[in-house]
Design a protein that fits this description.
2 copies of one chain form a homodimer.
Chain A lengths: L8 H25 L6 H7 L4 H7 L3 H21 L5 H16 L3 H11 L14 H15 L9 H20 L7 H14 L9 H16 L12
Chain A binds a DNA duplex (18 and 18 nucleotides) through helix 1 and helix 3.
Chain lengths: 232, 232
DNA sequence: GTCTATATCCGGATAGAC
DNA sequence: GTCTATCCGGATATAGAC
């Protein structure tokens, strides 16, 4: 046990530092010029690395974008976990926080959203590589809804519906040129004010029956609405 | 008036023929190998042209995709115009026909449908470049709904909502591997059987009030729900 | 294991000659 | 209108420094 294992700490930190620097510079460039216009050569140069070294850490430009998404989702969950209040309030916090977390990177968001929905993946209508991140996002919403008193059977469907709504809101957000993106934030509140009061309707017998019909139809179409909140 | 204007007919036909051949070969290749994997060099060679000549007719690969959209939409409108029956039946005809019209090109569409959610992607359904085609498609649905007896004020909103539903159905369709894509066709009927009976609710005072609230909220968010059926 | 440097391939897009 | 030549950038591969 002379010098074999102990020195492992330092190189590992350096590795992470280099990786982090690369990601940081890439995001700055993405932000300034857009993803498309930023070249891997630019990124490598900005981080003081060679092109080959950059590819050593990130196998593609998209990998850099994807790394950002994971970091962003982690950051969001931190915020959301601390949310408290009514269901309406907590949903508001989650939705607004999502928008705010991506605000500095609106320009590159389109490339990120694009990778969320990749049906060309052999495994299913949605890609496996982004499945974890997506399920996390859905799980976050489902978790908040647990306090709504809705029957457990309808929660997965409602959570997925709200996630889709959030996706739509992101689309609006990246195209929002109003100051502070207030238009989209306003839309979030308008939407929640409309939807949340209607949620109890889904708890009634006819509401539940409707949900079951929808889940059945989706199931027959090959889109399972899993009770999957295996997150956290 | 010796030989200036008259001979214009022949060159023009040749131009169209070359253009058509290029588009035809491009679609065949898109279908066989996907859009991404098909190169402009492949397309040019398949049409017996040089790369530069291909770019003379179509300024980009995307332009070829646009041309397909337009041809497809035109074909669909022809079918839809002849539809008759109840609102439910006519919507069914339009939706099923849409699916059938893209059936031969499912592979091609699945290769680009991942760009669906990207508002900045010129090929996507939300871009300004595809606006004309999009408004036509929405107008088609709105036209059918006119026979529903719904107040005119809510029609544009409902038509747009149904168009979004149709978009989702396309997503399911291109990934449908059931024989004859029966799963998706079944989903179309399930969906319409659920939604159409609910439409009269939107004609009631509270239903109209809800619609107006939604349209207002969207308007404030910069998404005008125009009464736009300025098509036909 | 980390990184540089460089050469190469590929494909979208363009310029300019004919 | 058509071609050839070329640019540009993403991606890969490799040889070798440390």
């Amino acid at each position: 046990m002379s010098s074999r294992k102990p020195p492992s700490a330092d190189p590992e930190r350096k590795r992470d530092a280099t990786r982090g620097k690369l990601l940081d510079r890439a995001l700055k460039l993405f932000q300034k010029r857009g993803v498309e216009a930023t070249t891997m050569r630019d990124i490598a140069k900005a981080a003081g690395l060679s092109l080959g070294a950059a590819y050593y850490y990130f196998p593609s430009k998209e990998a850099l974008v994807f790394a950002y998404y994971e970091a962003n989702q982690a950051e969001l969950e931190e915020v959301a976990r601390r949310a408290s209040g009514t269901v309406r309030e907590r949903l508001g916090i989650v939705f607004h926080a999502k928008l705010e977390s991506i605000r500095p990177h609106r320009k590159m968001l389109s490339s990120i959203i694009q990778r969320l929905v990749d049906p060309s993946d052999p495994v299913g209508p949605f890609s496996t590589q982004t499945r974890a991140v997506r399920e996390h996002a859905i799980g976050l919403i489902e978790q908040v809804l647990h306090a709504s008193g809705l029957p457990v059977a309808v929660l997965p469907l409602v959570a997925r519906a709200l996630w889709l709504a959030q996706l739509a809101l992101l689309l609006v957000f990246v195209n929002d040129d109003s100051p502070g993106e207030q238009r989209t934030h306003g839309l979030v509140d308008d939407l929640l004010d409309m939807l949340v009061p209607m949620l109890p309707l889904l708890g009634t017998p006819p509401g539940q029956a409707l949900c079951i019909k929808i889940v059945d139809a989706l199931g027959r179409a090959g889109i399972p609405v899993t009770p999957a909140s295996l997150v956290e």
